[in-house]
Amino acid sequence: MATADLDARQGARERVVILGSGWGVMPRPTIRVSNTGYVLSRQLSAKKFHTLVISPRTYLVFTPLLNESAVGTLEFRTTVEPVRNRRYPNVEFMQGWADDVDFDGKTVRVEESVLDVGQAAAHTGGKYEGYSEQEERREKGMRERQGKMWQGPYDKLVIASYVRNKGVKENAYFLKDIADATRIRRRVLECFEIAMLPTTEDKLREHLLNFAIIGGGPTGMEFAAELSDLVHEDLLKLYPSLKGFVKVTVYDIAPKVLSMFDESLAKYAMETFQESISRSRPSIMSRSFGPVYQAAGWRAEALMRIPRVVPH
Question: Which of 87, 83, 105, 106 is nearest to 96 (CA)?
Fold first, then answer.
């Protein structure tokens, strides 16, 4: 489809370009937006606006369900919804990375991403986020054959993407997309298998089975509960000798968990999970994540990462 076709279908309507098809929009002081890019695209008037969604993903991830899919309670196909839908013919979609925005000229430069292998992971550090070193080298070597640029105008622009937290990629796991949930599920099982090996020291077992969730909001607490259920109701029956090493901890700077809800709900959550989930409140709010564990003589440093999870 040529951009001329988009212009022809636009007619006299204003074009609204939405960057991102994910779950949340970062609010600005002068822009009060509570919907996602996906939902917003379906709520705009078809008579007034010509809507164009630009995203490296062709689907919306219903992130609250990633908690269950990360521990195997739900299958991943239940957590996604395609952006393209015949019930919304007014919503156009183009798969690509928003490479640059000319705010004065009101244009967006987009790079194609149809063959992007990292599109199902949390995009927290650029277009190569989620790639292995081999995949990144291969993709960079194919830049002349892939990732062609195109440019399109807009009348109104909605940036529905999230920001990067420094150090997460190197030291923790995001929980924002299907690939993230897959990594967490695989990593939890790896930690238990490594902890069972006779060559693994008790100190390392404690670190491997210390699951830290950053954030005591709805997603953090729900994932902590799902992970606790998985560990205590299923995995410890398969690995009974590791019972004394497992620990699930929720970290949050707020004075209480679920601080956006009624205090009685937060109290009930902590009373319900106090035997299986512990809570820690850091004295300093950190916006970055440092190295989790270092020990001389242990090989495969990436393999020894504690599975810390950063919810959406």
Answer: 83
Q: In what order do the strands lie in the sheet with 210-214?
A: 173-175, 309-311, 210-214, 247-251, 278-280
Whether the CB-CB separation of 154 and 102 falls below 8 Å is answered with: no
Pairing status of strand 156-159 against strand 173-175: unpaired
Give the DSSP letter of residue 301.
G
Alpha-carbon dihedral of residues 290, 293, 296, 300, nearest 10 degrees?
A: -90
3-state SS, residue 257: coil
Q: How many whole angstroms separate alpha carbon 186 and alpha carbon 188?
A: 6
pLDDT for 80 equals 87
Q: Using the Cα atoms of residue 246, residue 251, residue 256 and residue 257 in order, give the sign of their dihedral.
A: negative
Separation between Cα atoms, residue 131 and residue 24, nearest integer Å: 23
| Residue 208 in tokens | 């491997």
Kindly report, residue by residue over 31-89, the tens digit of the pLDDT: 334 447 788 888 889 899 999 999 888 888 888 888 888 898 888 888 888 888 888 88
Residue stretches of the chain with pLDDT short of 50: 25-35, 117, 123-125, 143-145, 283-306, 312
Q: What is the pLDDT of residues 198-224, one digit of tens each?
A: 999 999 999 999 998 888 888 888 888
Total residues belonging to the chain = 312
Please count the other Cβ atoms lying within 10 Å of the Cβ belonging to residue 18. Answer: 27
